[in-house]
Amino acid sequence: MKSENMYIIWSHPRADSLTAKIVEEIQGEATRNDISVTTLDLYRRGFNPALEQDDEPDWQNPQKQYSSEVHQLFGELQDKDTLVFVFPLWWYSFPAMLKGYLDRVWNHGLAYGKGSTLAGKKIRWVALIGGSEDKFIEYGWCKNMTDFLNGAASYLGIEDNGITFLYNTIGVEQDIGDNQSHYESLFEKSRRIVDTLL
Ligand SMILES: Cc1cc2nc3c(=O)[nH]c(=O)nc-3n(C[C@H](O)[C@H](O)[C@H](O)COP(=O)(O)O)c2cc1C
């Protein structure tokens, strides 16, 4: 079924980063295809990724009331059929900001624990990777990250899960020749993600 409402959750300290530009590309392409887009810019929203006591799950009580920020942000997902995460790879993982979003907002009783309210949504993960594809595969990071993202989606009952890695974002591990055409190819690859939602 075609996506109608997309929610892009993204994390980068700079609003003019390559990560932000990839968000713009996806947003633009989705809009051109009549998908309504809402973005959650975790840094500019002032999100605090540290899980404090208020947001610690009570395993006996899936009805627990968490902080108002958590209920507000989880509520923002409800009418969206498609969730897109855009982030730079940091230490072969999520930036802490995004990990904290999952820890706090996708909490027990909300995202999991009494039947997931996220099952049925589509997810697209878009990771910007500084290094080369060869090294990412050689050291096992590709499998590690793919297994984690697929595992997280299936834990939540999400069947339509897509992962895109955008390589050589800093052009150090591998010569990226004419930078401009390399970055154009990353923008094109990110726009093509929208094709999988139509
Ligand atoms: C704290 C930190 C950790 C990073 N760790 C990795 C890494 O593990 N592997 C990798 O390929 N690139 C790594 N990078 C490079 C980022 O992936 C790269 O800066 C990003 O994809 C470029 O997008 P941006 O310009 O939007 O930041 C790291 C960068 C930072 C700042």
TrEMBL record:
Cellular component (GO) terms are:
cytosol
Q: Where is the Flavodoxin-like fold domain?
A: 5-175
Keyword DNA damage attached: no
In the UniProt record, does the keyword Oxidoreductase occur?
yes
Q: Which Gene Ontology MF annotations are present?
A: NAD(P)H dehydrogenase (quinone) activity
InterPro entries the UniProt entry points to? Flavodoxin_fold (IPR003680), Flavoprotein-like_sf (IPR029039), NAD(P)H_dehydrogenase_qn (IPR051545)
EC number(s) reported in the record = 1.6.99.-
Q: Which Pfam families match?
A: Flavodoxin_2
Keywords, sorted A to Z: Oxidoreductase
List the NCBIfam families hit by this protein, alphabetically: PRK09739.1
Q: Which family does it belong to?
A: Belongs to the NAD(P)H dehydrogenase (quinone) family.
- Give the protein's recorded name: NAD(P)H oxidoreductase
Protein source organism:
Limnobaculum xujianqingii
Top-down, what is the taxonomic lineage of the species of origin? Bacteria, Pseudomonadati, Pseudomonadota, Gammaproteobacteria, Enterobacterales
